[in-house]
Each structure stands twice: as structure tokens, then as C-alpha cells.
User: What shape does this take?
Amino acid sequence: MLDDRTVHRLRGLRVLVGNTPLLAIEYRLDGGPPRAVYAKAEHLNLTGSIKDRMALHILRRACETGALRPGGLIIEATSGNTGISFAAIGRALGHPVAIFMPDWMSEERKALIRSFGAAIHLVSKDDGGFLGSIRLAEELAAQTPGAFLPRQFANDENPVAHATSTGPELLAQLRSQGLAPTAFTAGVGTGGTIMGVGRYLQREVPGIKVHPVEPANSPTLSTGHKVGRHRIQGISDEFIPPIVQLDALDAIIAVDDGDAIRMAQALAHQGLGVGISSGANFLAAVRLREQLGDAAVVVTVFPDSNKKYLTTDLLRDEPPHPDHLAPRIELDGFRGVNRVCDVCFDASDPASAPALATLTGRRP
Ligand code: PMP
Assistant: This one.
């Protein structure tokens, strides 16, 4: 049961989370005919990333179930965007927030978390890096009465956030253009996006392909463990998260991190200031579009903006590589498919069911 103050604050946050525009990005490959792939502009969320959807949904559910009580400490281990989202949304709901993250993440991420008023605990490689962050978060929670651990890597509400917002939104947006998706592709961090959107689209669009993306330089999904290094922050951590079920998905697409950087740089030159994983997702979408043929409608997400990478290789010249796809793609601008509706909806909220049914052409 939610108190009036929490309901009021959740409503305010809902206006700034999700319901993002869908972009049709036009390109030519090797000077060929004009084509397009679609991407949800998730960099336009409250804190500039897709993780706001997950954080808002998990915190709302935790308030509803009583797992998070007024004033309770929110503790999360994260490689960055999740920490920023929990910091902003947790503080907006009136909670203290403590974030554990590896110390090698970008300076912008650390500063942003602090700027929202959350405590940040940096964990070195020697102290266990990412897995050490998770262990330390669990230890603090065990010692803190009333603490709430969202556990984004294992929490089923993470994919639910996408199955009830990102997925229905993009399907409604495509249908508003008379289109149906042929394939969805996205990089895997926690796997919330690929599993949640994937599961929703597999139910709604029989035969749709759902392809996870990983860095070619560090293929955790293909090998089952951490190998090599890569620069696509936000995807491919050190293990396969429990919410990822590879047998429910189609083939993994591997993207070189340098190629992803070059693609993100090219997107920025079109006015789309997106992060490195957006470059990787775009390359995966173009590859699928080329493989699946002329009728294919391929959709992906731009998970975050370029603002957190201003001190990284995203702003440096990337050495050319003969296998890179980015230099073969000529971008021709983009069209926007508008937001779904002025009143934000959430399919897990019964009050939104009629609006959602109208938008997706489906009975509640
Ligand atoms: N890109 C970026 C920049 C991210 O921060 C994340 C989240 N870690 C992802 C992609 C992957 O999203 P998900 O956790 O839903 O798999």
C-alpha cells in the first residue's frame, strides 16, 4: 500500500521516465540504396539512460510490497547507469542511497551519483571489482536494518520493467506507422532489456528474432565467463546474469568495441549524442537489417547519452580497422516516430490497461 506522498512523487517521476520517441535512422551501406533501422531514444530519460525504467519500476514495486519502507536505505552494486538511476529516483522518493561500483568506471558516472546525494563506495580490482561490489553491497545490507537491495542482476522485476514499458511502447510506435518488427537486438548488461522486450515481442509478434549483443573483444555470453577487455561500458560484465536465458534468444551478435566507438561518433555527427553501447546496438541492427532483407523492420535501443563518456575513448580518434562496419555506413539523418501518448502508461499498472490496449490494438 502506497502513502499519498509516495504516489505523488511516483507520478511526477513517471512523466520523465519512459515513453521515449522511436527514431527511424536512415543510412546507406557501401553507397547502396537508402535503408532504415529503428531505435528507442532512451538517452532522453530522466537521468539520461534506459536504467531509469528499471529503477522506477523496481522501487515502485518495492514500495507497494513493503520491501522498501519509508526512509529505508537503498543499496546497489552497479557499473554506472543503474547507480545514477537509483541515486536520482531513490533520493526523489525520499530514501538514502549507497552505491558500490568498480573504481575504473568513468569519472562522469561517479560524479553524477554523488551529485544526486547518494553515497558512493569504489571497489578496486584487488578488492574484487564488479563481483566484489556485489559482495560488499550484500554485506552492508546484512548489517543495516530496513535496507533494500534491488539486485538488478537477479531481480525478475528488471525484465518486467521492459516487458511492460519499452516493449509495448516500441510495438505501438511501429504499429502507428503500419509496421511490425522483424527483429529486436540489444547489448546485454543485466539482460533486463533483451529479456523483457524480447519476451514481450515474442508473445505479441510470432516469429520475431531477438538477438543479444556482446563485445567481440570480451565475449562473456559466448564463453560463460570474463575474457579479455572491452570499452563498451554497461554491457558484458564479468558473468552471465541469472535473468539472462540464452536458450530463449536467437544468435549472439559480436561487435568490436572500436567499431562501436566509431559508430557512436558518427551518430553524434548527426546530432544523436549517444553512448558507446548505442553504437554497438546500431551496428548489430544494421547487420540484421542487411541479413534479413528488404522487408525487415529491425529495432534496437540507444541506452544512454554521450555525456558520461567525455573523458573516454569516445572523444578520441579510433584507429581504422579493415573489419569495421561503421566506416561503410553513411548516415542520412533520422525521422522521429512520436512518443506513444501524452499520458505515460505502465502496463503493470491496471489503470493503464485501457490506454495500452488501444495503443497496441490488443484487449486488456
Ligand atoms: N548500455 C548501457 C550504457 C548500460 O548502462 C546498460 C545497463 N547496464 C546496458 C546497455 C544494458 O542494459 P541491460 O542491463 O538492460 O542489459
Notes: DSSP finds eleven helices and ten strands in the chain. Residues 49, 51, 79-81, 187-193, 233-235, 275, 277, 303-304 surround 4'-deoxy-4'-aminopyridoxal-5'-phosphate (CB under 6 Å).
